[in-house]
Fold SWIM-type domain-containing protein.
Amino acid sequence: MSNSNFTFISDRQKGIIPAISKVFPSAEHRYCLRHIHENMRQKWRGEFLKNLLWKCASATTIPKFESMMEEIRKQDSTLFDWLKQIPPKHWARAYFTGARDKPVITCLEYIREYMMKRILVVHKLISKCDGPLTPNATKAFNTIKSEASQYTVIWNTSNKYQVNGPWSDQRVVDVGQRTCSCRRWELTGMPCKHAVAVNWNMAVNGIEVGIPESWVSKVYWLDTWKKVYQSTVNPINGKDLWIPSTCPTTLLPPKHHKQIGRPKKKRKKAVDELNQGVSKNGKMVRAGNTITCTLCKDIGHNKRTCNGQRQNG
């Protein structure tokens, strides 16, 4: 299955980067800019540098991105060298691919054309298939049938069978309920090796059961796959032949209901930020400026909690 439609957003953990490249080689991988800034501010602080970083990331064209990077180089060449080590395709909008950042109509046209191409590819693949199941389901079920050849079956004259196999593998298959004590049949919808062995045993004893594939759930059938992609996306003319819509073109914002209480302005903190303001004794650290006692002129407490003596003026 193609994974080119996946986009992952994460921090720059060393284990995540190679894992995504290996498991999803065609997927897009973006770095969270807030995490990049958190790493940056360990050496380079200041609101000005932070704004330059965000301007670089939000620039929509490569020349604009390079211009903002040049501004960073003028301010601090070491920061510039540090940012150049991070591939811009992972964090700079100017290097992003696809239609995600395009205007709404262009984005929808991209999706429509992609769906047309996708359906065509699937139709060509379906035309080359034969058999009752899809290619992937056929491959998986052939593996199950090869394992089922090692099992023996004992019938109890009703709908239940005892299946014995290598390594003391003994299970009970209920044909009436279409279940097996290994639970693979119920969970996947595809008969397990124990159920396949029962199917073969029933056929040998003259019971009309059909082929083992007939016990497979319809979701794995080739006919179901054809029905899913039987609809098509019609082509349309260019914008110069579009008929003007009679619907209102002015889009109004949704009605806003003012919430009760003081409005929240602070950003919701991530999980790794929740413990940053907690001291060793489990108490929250006071945020803001350090207070000074008006009695002893010491810092870190006020006159109400002061244990010293009032200074004589």
User: Anything to note?
Assistant: The mean pLDDT is 86. The longest strand covers residues 160-165.
